[in-house]
Amino acid sequence: MGISRMTVKGKGFASAPPDAIAISLQLEDIKDTYELAMQHAALALDQVRETLLPLGFPKKEIRSTHFSIDSAYEYRNDFRGENKRYFLGYRYRNDLKVTFGNDSKRLGEILLALSTCEADPEFSVYFFMKDRQAVEQALLEDAVRDAKAKAQILAAAGGVMLGKILAIDYDWGEIEVRSRIYEASSKMAYDSAPMIDLEPEDISNSDTVTVVWEILNAQKG
């Protein structure tokens, strides 16, 4: 005799204030030769390190997430009006990242320093949860509660009772717990520093679980 089942999806929500900040920096330029591109990339990296060192970031804490040097081209019309590809030189790109605790005052100091850095980096800021466990647990607990509430409504409407839980399905994908990104430019005006006071909203997220219940006193066809 088969077991009657009810399958319900529950959606959970959780939010918490961010506890960490990450700044992503991008160094990019085009030079005539490969050697010049390498030299300039190294110089720009040193300039960023010199800028961030007094703010508490030793060399090992300025991490490179991507580095490349590629031939650079552009398409434009020649004197005959024909569209052709022209070699520009060698483009280097070095993506860096630093992270630190959520401190808006320190963030303002770092952004101000980067705005005067000779390497002229582009950068963006995002707030995230370094301690994710509590948020993930609250989110999943809320999802199971939501599934149970829905199941109880369906059971009452159908004149049946819920039995034991037969299965809980969750894909265990990584829950993203970071806020929206704030973009900035190294060309920002020096006198704009007093305006830098970024207070992020709580980071919110959602996820789903699928719960299967045994149905008691179900009518058999």
UniProtKB/TrEMBL annotation:
One of its GO terms (biological process) is DNA damage response. Pfam families: SIMPL. Signal peptide: none annotated. It comes from the Bacteria. InterPro entries: 26kDa_periplasmic_antigen (IPR052022), SIMPL/DUF541 (IPR007497). This is Secreted protein. It comes from Trichococcus patagoniensis.
